[in-house]
Structures are given as structure tokens and as C-alpha cells.
Amino acid sequence: MIILIGSQKGGCGKSTTAVNISAELAGRGHDVVLVDADRQCTGANWAMDRAENKELATVHCIQKYDNIRDTLIDLDSRYEYVIVDAAGRDSRELRTGMTAAHILIVPFRPSQPDLDTLPNMQEIIVQARDLNSSLKVYGLITMAPTNPVIHEETDARDCLNDYPEIELLDTMICDRKCYRDAMSDGLGVVEMNNPKAKNEIKKLMDGIL
Fold first, then answer.
1. Region 144-154: what's the mean pLDDT?
2. What is the mean pLDDT of the chain?
3. What is the mean pLDDT of residues 65-88?
4. How far apart are CA 159 and CA 129, in angstroms?
5. Which pLDDT value is given to residue 89?
6. DSSP secondary structure string for all residues of 144-174
7. What are phi and psi of 101, to 5 degrees?
8. Burial class (CB in 10 A: 0-12, 13-18, 19+), 20
């Protein structure tokens, strides 16, 4: 299965989502490869740090840019899960990846600048489905405030009603320091002692698989 994480905007937790999905699937005993298709190399750097700890479940990693379609199809025949971290913009990697992926996860923060990218993202999804009609698309709220008096998440959910091509997931990823700590050590939050963050990733996986 090919799971592509892509967005029209950087800074929305795209790479964080990709590596945590990879760690969770590897921890469940699956054969996983992470494809870093973002030239910032955040995912690849995480995988290198992870490889130094032999006690962790293995996440293979390759870097691939430009037209990634054929590479993803080939990897899909050799791994149970192919997790793709595409650049946070309207990129060739994002568009070609969508023609091969089974699932697209669109992470976005509950903020107006992120919501403003959704009209163009929906247009790209419509075009991709002309070539890949079975593509499933899920919206994922990320970096949500943990302060209960802030209601940005509710407003973001209401906004998604205007974009029928994107199915909003019930679960969301909150803005927690443990996600940043995990990235620096090649870990997933499921491998750390933070029950709330662990539950977010496990609920995410249960929602898309």
C-alpha cells in the first residue's frame, strides 16, 4: 500500500506525520519503506538517526525526486507499506505521487493560511483522480492547540465541508513537544512515554487502514 503525505504548504507537520506513521507500522511488524521526496530531507535525516538504534523496528528509507510514480509502483511490489513524504508545495513529486498512491493524507493546521490552500489542493486531487480513480483522500488537522478555550479546530472542521474531495479524519494531531523530541532521535511518539501522542497516531492509523 502506498500512503502519500502531501500538502500545499510547508510547516504543517507533514514530515512528522510521515515518520510517525512509518514508526507505528514498523512497530506493528510490517515491512515499511519511507520515501523522502522532499529536498529538505527531514524524513531521510530521521531515518538515518533511527538506523543507529538497532533496538528499534526497521524503517527502510530512500530519497527520490521529480517523477516518483514508477519508483512508488516498484516499491509497492516489494514492501507492505510505502510511506511518501512529498514537498510542502504544488510539486512534481506530489502530483506524480498522487497518480500511484492508494491513500493521500493532507495535513493542515487549523489556521487561515493553511485553509486558504485547500481550494487549489482540491483541484489537484480532482485532476489526479482522472488518472487514479481509486485514490482515497483524507484531511488531517495537525498542530492543533491543546488549550481547551481555543476553538480553531472546530472552525477548521466546518471549513472542510466546502471540499468534498477531502474526507476529514475524526482524529487530529495536537501541538506537543514530544513530536519534536521524537524527530531528533529517530523515534516515533509511539516509542516514547506520552500516552496522548501515542493515542493520536494509533487512532490515525485505525482511521485510514
1. 76
2. 94
3. 96
4. 22
5. 79
6. B---TT--HHHHHHHHGGG-TTSEE-S---B
7. -70, 150
8. buried
Are the CB atoms for 52 and 187 separated by under 8 Å? no
Confirm whether pTM is higher than 0.85.
yes
| Single-letter code of the amino acid located at 97 | G
Nearest-angstrom CA–CA distance, 174 and 204? 12
Q: What is the mean pLDDT of residues 150-174?
A: 88
Distance CA 206, CA 164 (A): 21
d(CA 41, CA 65): 11
The DSSP bridge pattern shows strands 60-63 and 2-5 to be unpaired
Average pLDDT of the residues in 115-120: 91
The answer to whether 171 and 203 have CB atoms below 8 angstroms apart is yes
pLDDT surpasses 90 at 158: no
Residues in Cβ contact with 188 at an 8 Å cutoff, skipping those fewer than 6 apart: 19, 20, 22, 23, 24, 27, 182, 201
Instruction: Give residue for cell 481550494.
Output: 119
Q: Residue 148: pLDDT band by 50, 70, 90 thresholds?
A: low
Q: Which three cell numbers stand for residue 162?
A: 466546502
Average pLDDT, stretch 83-110? 94
Residue 145 · residue 161 · CB < 8 Å = no
Q: Which residues pair with 105 in a beta bridge?
A: 5, 138
Characterize 142-176 residue by residue with b for buried, 16 or more Cβ atoms within 10 angstroms of its Cβ, and e for exposed. bbbeeeeeeebeeebeebbeebebbebbebbbeeb
